[in-house]
Amino acid sequence: MKILIIEDEIQSRKKVEDYIKRYDPSINIVLSTGSFKEAIHTLINHSIDLVLSDIEILDGNVFDLLTETPVVCPFIFISAYDHYSFNALENHGFGYLLKPYTYEQFSKVMANYFTLKTKISGTNERNIEALQIFRDPDYRKRIVVQSGKGKVSILKVNLVKLIEIEGGVLFAHTESDKKFIIKETLTLSHIEATLSPKMFF
């Protein structure tokens, strides 16, 4: 497996490298860089399986890189800010780690990636459907929510029965009667426009 790391803070970059080696020493870190120029060159000239990337680095924003460069691999985004989470989901985002994060949080995201990768290794209809996580869907399948104090999680849209606004704050209610604050800088009408009318009406 080949991984690209994009992080301009030396200590943060070393942390990602150490966590990867701890998780699976056989993983090949093709490049660990703080430069978009080097990252773009690597994405063009190597077959990268997964990118772990900060969002804001010295020479730009990672979403600009995704606009300029054809990318087919998933990203795990790493940031000190949670307000990028919606953009992350719309730009090849598979996971989102909020700094400071622990090895346990890192390993969970990696385990989820490998689980999904195994599931989509075939070509049947179910696996093709799972692969849509790595593509831009017609309608969103996930919502970024607050799952605890300082914690951000991904909530599958098919688990949501109601989205409402209370006091200027958006909430998602699940079929199991749980209530989550939606951590996305969007209006109710914007979210409604991105949801499948077959599921919400």
TrEMBL record:
PROSITE patterns: RESPONSE_REGULATORY (PS50110)
SUPFAM superfamilies: CheY-like
Domain of life, per lineage: Bacteria
InterPro entries per UniProt: 2C-system_Tx_regulators, CheY-like_superfamily, Sig_transdc_resp-reg_receiver
Sorted UniProt keywords: Phosphoprotein
Annotated Pfam families: Response_reg
Residues recorded as bearing 4-aspartylphosphate in the entry: 54
Coiled-coil annotated residue ranges, if any: none
Name of the protein in question: LytR/AlgR family response regulator transcription factor
